[in-house]
Specification:
The protein is 44% helix and 19% strand. The protein is α/β, with parallel strands linked by helices. It has a single domain (4-119), classed as Rossmann fold (3-Layer(aba) Sandwich), CATH 3.40.50. The radius of gyration is 13 Å and the shape is globular. The chain starts with a strand and ends with a helix.
Length: 120
């Protein structure tokens, strides 16, 4: 049985790149274009892992992460932040929102795959 990974990113190029990497793992990839969609899809499909950008329209990734990791039905889904915001304060804030890890953009493909494998 393949794992389901929710990719939340407003950049179609990033969505495609990450999706292509994950499909190489035989993962079922579901896409969301902003934080609000990410929260809704997490509640709907209960993915095995969420890869979340931060800078997005409507609801940013930190707020979406907080909603997912504090929700009764979604709190056990690991969230990994994948963002160009990679200052130490951003990493601390991501952890405070419930994220399990943070990957800085641009990332090495293997770095992303290592984090995915760590949480699946």
């Amino acid at each position: 049985m393949s794992k389901t990974i929710l990719v939340v990113d407003d950049d179609p190029v990033q969505q495609k790149h990450i999706s292509d990497l994950l499909r190489g793992l035989n993962a079922n990839v579901v896409l969301a274009g902003n934080g609000q969609q990410g929260v809704e899809k997490a509640q709907e499909i209960h993915p095995d892992l969420i890869l979340m950008d931060v800078v997005m329209p409507e609801v940013d990734g930190f707020a979406a992460c907080r909603q997912i990791t504090s929700g009764a039905d979604t709190k056990d889904i690991p969230v990994v932040i994948v963002s160009s915001k990679n200052q130490e304060a951003d990493k601390v804030w991501a952890q405070l929102q419930g994220a399990k890890a943070m990957i800085a953009k641009p990332f090495a493909d293997q770095e992303l795959l290592d984090q995915v494998n760590a949480y699946l």
